[in-house]
Amino acid sequence: MKLLTQLLYNKKALTGLIIISIIILVAIFAPLLTEYSPVKRVGRPHQPPSWDHWLGTTRLGHDVFSRLVHGARVSLAVGFGAGLLITLIGTILGIIAGYKGGVVDEVINFFTNMVLVVPNLPLLLVLAAFIGQASPLVIAIILGCTSWAWGVRVTRSETLSIRQRDFVKSAEMLGEPGWRIMLFEIFPNLISIVGINFIGSVIFAVITEATLEFLGLGDPNTVSWGIMLYNAQNAAALAVGAWWDLLAPCFALAFLGLGLALLNFAIDEIANPRLRTGGMLNRWSRMVRLGEGKL
Question: The pTM is what?
Fold first, then answer.
């Protein structure tokens, strides 16, 4: 509750929440925002933006705005689904490794180091190419199962610090089981770290999914922002002057990334008070200038 209150009073967080909320609402109410089907031909090929087609049409005569708002559903589902899976695996393994220590910590660290050593994007490209035209669900699972190592490292490091505090020692002396200590004593103190990990994972998943689909490793029958980029590339949209076909999904991805990044920065500032000194210094300098003016 305290974290939520601090977020609502943070300008970056509030702006990020507004941006993300707008995109989510557009995705939810996509059928009500446009009368056109995202998979049916409704106009001439590469028709420029007009009153009938706000963002023009594609080479196949599909309405770009309709595909944009419907594609938000898939892109958000992959981003938040993969982000949740990445965060869940990283948080669970990180808390267990940090609290248990010993052999358990060594085994988890061994597998974590293995995942960290392998370059992530080439691994994703190989897996996606091996599967073929991967569906959004498959892409989300691949991302979730190959991108959790960073979260384990960060969560483990913070858990090692928290486990030495008095309230954890007191719970151990009272004989509370390990799972209860990890769930009710350690995890609540990791909320900010988990939040940063989740938002960063969502950004990574959305961009990576769009990258894989742009390279032709996604399902072309899916309507998503990555597939829109892929189709625009194949249609040589910029070469024929159909800039709207390519820029629409690019701006959508950038807009979503901006909202998530602002929210991530805000949580980082709240979790790390040292990052808030900039605002305090600005207020102090204004007070000094006002005092000098009065003198």
Answer: 0.86
Tell me: the pLDDT tens digits for 127-152?
877 777 788 888 899 899 889 999 99
Q: What is the pLDDT of residues 68-105, one digit of tens each?
A: 999 999 999 999 999 999 999 999 999 999 999 899 99
**Nearest one of 218, 231, 224, 52 to 124, comparing CA atoms:** 218
Q: How many angstroms separate the CA atoms of 257 and 251, rounded?
A: 10
The Cα–Cα gap between 67 and 192 comes to 35
Q: Are 216 and 233 in contact (CB under 8 A)?
A: no
Please name the helix (run of DSSP H) or strand (run of DSSP E) that holds residue 50, with its range, or none: none
Q: Counting every residue, how long is the chain?
A: 295
Q: Is 125 exposed, middle or buried (0-12, 13-18, 19+ CB in 10 A)?
A: middle
* Residue 230: closest CA among 244, 203, 248, 211: 211
* Nearest in space to 259 (alpha carbons), one of 223, 206, 217: 206
For 241, list phi and psi in degrees, rounded to 5.
90, 10
Instruction: Taking each helix axis as running N to C, give the angle between helix 64-100 and helix 11-28, from 0 to 180 degrees, rounded to the nearest 10.
Output: 120
Burial of 160 (0-12, 13-18, 19+ CB in 10 A): middle
Hey, what are 276's tokens?
């808030």
Three-state DSSP at 228 gives helix
Instruction: Give the angle subtended at the CA of 253 by the CAs of 231 and 245, to the nearest 5°.
Output: 35
Angle (CA) 76-79-83 rounded to 5° is 140
Tokens of 187: 């995890």
| Vertex 247: Cα angle to 246 and 250 (nearest 5) | 100
